[in-house]
User: What shape does this take?
Amino acid sequence: MSAQQSGDTQTAIRAEPVFIVGCGRSGTTMLRLMMDSHPELAIPGESHFIPLLWRLRGGYLSGSSLDAERLAADIMRTRFFQQWGIPQEPVWRRVSRLTAPGFTDVVEAIFLAYADEQGKSHWGDKTPIYVLHIPLLADLFPKARFLHIIRDGRDVSLSYFGFPLGPSNIWEAACRWQRDVTAGQRAGATLPGRYMEVRYEQLVREPEMVLGAICDFLAIAFDPRMLDYHRSAESRLQSQDDLTEFHKSVTKRPTVGIRNWREELPRRQIRAFESVAGPLLTELGYERLFPQVHLAGRAEAALRVRYVKSRALGSRIKKSILRRSSHPIGISTARS
Assistant: This one.
């Protein structure tokens, strides 16, 4: 049974949204600002609420009817929506026009209200972790297209260090990068014509060419204002993103070599990363400093990966327990 058939009445979805996904610190914010600079496309800050509220959709159902107003109200109470910096009135206008709405209709109304406030006709989303939820999003939004941005994992690791929400060590960074890139590619292989990979390195080296290809993929005309995204980047991040200090590079033109793993990563960390994710680096065409990992290195990598996965499992169990008593994004779903 598809997501659209699971218990809520769905009206036709006519919009063609674009989802920008990828491993964190891979350039998703830069790509979002570029695409948001297009006169037709509005992409707010990260949402995070779509998969979370989809799992809780049963709490908004009464028989076969969805309480659209309560779902919209809960979305607008999340800190993610509040960082978008738009009033609630345009959302209520959109929601009030819905006829027999389903879950997806309400979510779309939220994003279209944001687009209305920006004077734009199309909407998109940039939430990197959605790279793990592409199948769900593709089912919920049958016309959606996906831009998966991929960056050399060793540069991603450098960018993660010092980032409060990032991995704590090189082993975790390698596992996360491999997990996210692999998940995106696996899902993309099932979505011909709806999925496009964007290489970060090529985007910063040849932005006009890559953005032109993206516009062709999305069936919209290229607009040179996309190349000037950096001029308004700081104000847009300040109003929609509470991690502005970690995105300072987007206030400048695309710059090659902002991170350089060859110069900044110690050899032992390079070896560690490649012992975990080396085959994927090779598959993607990235040069490896250690193309052959000796037996002891492979054994250590296996132990480290097992430890990282056990920690991740423990974290998921803890979150599952917490969800039993509270909403995962800090809002109540109890009926008043």
Remarks:
- The domain at 17-260 is CATH 3.40.50.300 (Rossmann fold).
- Residues 97 and 303 are 55 Å apart (CA to CA).
- Confidence is low (pLDDT under 50) at residues 1-13, 316-325, 332-336.
